[in-house]
Amino acid sequence: MKPVLDAHCQSIMDEYRNNLPLFKKEEKILVKRLRSLLDKAGVNVASLESRVKTESSLAGKLELKGQKYSSLADITDILGLRIITFYTDDVDKVASAVERLFTVDWKNSVDKRKLLEIDSFGYLSLHYVCSVKSFPYKFEIQMRTVLQHSWANMNHDTGYKSGVEIPKRYRRSMSRLAGMLELVDEEFSKIRSELTDYRRKVQALVASGDLDDAPLDGDTFRSYLGMNPFGNLNRRIASMNQAEIQEVSLMPYLKVFQMLNCSTLGDISRLIKDYSEGAYQIACYQIGLTDLDIVSSSIGPQNLCIACILKRGGGKAGIRYMFDTLNGPSEANEMMAQMLVSQAMEMPFMNQEE
Questions:
Q1: Do residues 12 and 72 make contact, with C-beta atoms less than 8 angstroms apart?
Q2: Max Cα separation, the chain?
Q3: Closest CA to 259 of 271, 246, 275, 242
Q4: Do 235 and 295 form a contact (C-beta atoms < 8 A)?
Q5: Of 184, 252, 326, 351, which sits with the fewest C-beta atoms within 10 Å of its C-beta?
């Protein structure tokens, strides 16, 4: 049924229709400014949504409480934006960024995260009423996490909080689920914070040279690669042909070093010390008599691992497993492993005592 509006509300509707193009234009401007601000602040958000209230939605609102508003300017949610974050602590980062960009009407803004009701999880959003000098109307910005947003949508779909009476057992289940989701939201932020602290400690360990205290994992290995630990070996190999070194990612070698029983960065450091000569000899056999003028930065660690595998008795099976790990299984890896084993038998490092 079409809302019945008095003359006062009709005048507000007329003002809305006359200014609708202005709202649409400002919507695009605000979204663009917010995206730019969040990028500069380094905040990764799940989504940034926006909408201009439809004519039917505004009419329904005016039918219910039209006398509350003296003009369209009193209705602050004609233009609304929603920023959805992955983590709870990012909501505050987004809020800080918004405060720098817009004027916040603190009197009419509300932090619903301070609600204490057990079933309030889906409503724990931060709502700012904002304004800018270039636009004559206020607008709303809502900030919440992905889980809070999902919960609010679920509530809407199930009719929960809609005023419709729901049996007690269902309300109890919904409240329990709300508590679980709130705990998950908090734990995600806690885990991220702890991981950030761990990475800082790891970087400090690597920078200080305490490699035996740095367990080998993705974070420590990435930090270690930043020290260019294979640089001397690569430069020595490249100097054979005065070749250029082409940098590639060496992260795939993490699994290979773990396969070689390296459990700390110190283990890799000792492996470099013990098997660099063998790696160089293998490289001499590979490129020494060629006119190759570009070599990959992976040539050092690859030959280092090959020398280690051969010296430890891993043989063809060990080398094939390495190539399968790096490049995916193929018959070509079998052929390459056989060739390397045959070549290495005549190399000096294979006949030296450790």
A1: yes
A2: 101
A3: 271
A4: no
A5: 351
Residue 235 lies in a domain: yes
Domain, as residue range, for 18: 7-164
Q: Are 247 and 236 in contact (CB under 8 A)?
A: no
What is the SS3 assignment for 255? helix
Average pLDDT, stretch 244-257? 96
CATH of the domain at 52: 3.30.460.10
3-state secondary structure of 86: coil
Please give the structure tokens belonging to residue 107: 């009197």
Instruction: Give the CA-trace dihedral at 145, 151, 154, 155, to 10 degrees.
Output: -120
How does pLDDT run across 68-84, given as a tens digit for each residue? 999 999 999 999 999 99
Buried/exposed code over 125-147 (b: 16+ C-beta within 10 A; e: otherwise): bbbbbbebeebebbbbbbbbbbb
Kindly state whether residue 297 falls inside one of the protein's structural domains.
yes
CA distance 53 to 80: 8
pLDDT of residue 118: 46
Cβ contacts of 306 within 8 Å, gap of 6 or more: 279, 282, 319, 322, 340, 344
The owner of tokens 């290979």 is 256
Q: Give the DSSP per-residue string, 302-326.
A: HHHHHHHHHHTT-HHHHHHHHHHHH
In the chain, the number of structural domains is 2
This model's pTM is above 0.90 = no
Distance in angstroms (rounded) separating the CA atoms of residues 217 and 250 = 13
Spatial CA neighbour of 300 closest among 352, 228, 354: 228
Nearest to 91 by CA among 82, 100, 78, 101: 82
